[in-house]
Specification:
375 residues, alpha/beta, Rossmann fold, Glutathione S-transferase Yfyf (Class Pi), Chain A, domain 2, 2 domains, six-stranded antiparallel sheet, 9 helices
């Protein structure tokens, strides 16, 4: 799989830009602030419908514009598909495949698979649990796009249930009874959607774990082994439980916590409160790993994702955004060995000397909102 062509309109700093890519390595070179990452971000958005830098779509639309458009031509197994996504400020986003509109934007998920590694990945290791949940869910959706609907359903039910709890809590504090007649219904919906999401995460973790161990050893060159554990908010979690069993435990926990949840106006148990615990040896990486170890672990998570996606069949596009500047020479060479074997690797760097020679294939200079191929 590779991206043959990228076109953006009113995306980030660009009024418009176009780049034709080849398979193999490509390097985008430019000083900081010139727009290299904006182009990488656009490719990643087509694959995930999200940005690795911001939580909402609003910053992706160029200042003064009403919408941004990203168009890509993607080649996979000898077949080319054109995907266009329109990001709107004041109305729903829209998408097209081969110029034909699709009912839902998320219908484009699965056409392009990417693995993007960037300095922001340190937040997966050092940040709050939401960063690690997002990492798991994004990878889950890349492997199986139907989980985008599962996650959307869970988020919708959670929002409705929290609103009901908050309203009931206010009423009780004001001396009224508080209407909880529909809470059992929302409990059932939350348990079903939550169990589906939790089962997907646990299954993914079982597959991902050995790849992380191997990738960390490769990147770090030895040291304490990496480990992954799932920390659930459920009172009891059997990692081998099926969806029905997980739903029953979640439903039971919701019932047991009802009084506390009404008092606080928030749902206290479910996948939205879980965490992925990253370890080096016996110690949690968060709070104990050095900066170098944390960066190596963040990179290992993305390389493990790349290897897992490859094992499914089909090569994902590898996107490396300013990562070589963060690595010493030994780690650079180890990463270059991996990237050189990708069907397509797109690399950004402030100076071309940061990129190992065997990745210096096609080169594009990025300056003043323009992308020009120079080699």
């Amino acid at each position: 799989m590779y991206v043959r062509h990228l076109s953006v309109t009113d995306w980030r700093s660009y009024s418009s830009a176009e780049i034709a890519f080849d398979p193999g390595p490509s390097v985008l070179v430019g000083l900081n602030g010139q727009g290299k990452t904006n182009l990488i971000e656009a490719i990643g958005y087509v694959a995930t419908l999200g940005s690795h830098r911001v939580a909402t779509d609003a910053p992706l639309v160029r200042a003064g514009a009403d919408r941004a458009v990203v168009r890509t031509a993607i080649v996979s197994a000898g077949r080319e598909l054109q995907v266009e996504i329109e990001i709107n400020r004041d109305k729903a986003n829209r998408a097209r495949i081969n110029r034909g509109p699709v009912p839902r934007v998320r219908d484009v998920l699965g056409i392009l698979r990417t693995v993007l590694s960037a300095p922001e990945d340190l937040a997966i290791v050092k940040g709050d649990p939401g960063e690690r949940r997002r990492f798991l869910d994004d990878l889950l959706i890349l492997r199986n796009p139907r989980y985008a609907g599962v996650r959307a359903d869970y988020d919708r039910v959670l929002k409705q249930r929290n609103a009901l709890l908050k309203t009931a809590g206010h009423a009780r504090r004001a001396g009224a009874a508080g209407d909880l007649r529909t809470l059992d219904v929302w409990d059932g919906h939350l348990a079903e959607a939550g169990a589906a999401l939790l089962a997907g995460r646990l299954g993914l973790l079982r597959l991902l774990r050995p790849y992380v161990v191997t990738s960390y050893d490769t990147v770090a060159g030895g040291g304490s082994p990496a480990g992954l554990d799932y920390e659930s908010s459920l009172s009891a979690l059997d990692p081998g439980a099926d969806r029905a069993e997980l739903a029953e435990v979640l439903r039971r926990d919701l019932e047991g916590l009802r009084a506390q949840e009404v008092e606080r106006g928030v749902t206290l148990v479910g996948p939205h409160r879980d965490d992925l615990v990253l370890r080096l040896g016996e110690l949690p990486a968060r709070g104990f790993a050095s900066h170098g170890e944390s960066w190596s672990l963040a990179l290992a998570l993305k390389l493990a994702s790349y290897d897992l996606l490859r094992s499914d069949g089909g090569e994902p596009v590898l996107l490396l955004d300013d990562v070589f500047a963060e690595l010493d020479s030994a780690r650079r060479e180890r990463l270059a060995d991996i990237a050189a074997g990708a069907e397509q690797a797109i690399v950004t760097a402030a100076v071309v000397e940061d990129v190992p020679a065997r990745l210096q294939g096609a080169r594009y200079d990025i300056a003043e909102g323009q992308a020009s191929r120079v080699a």
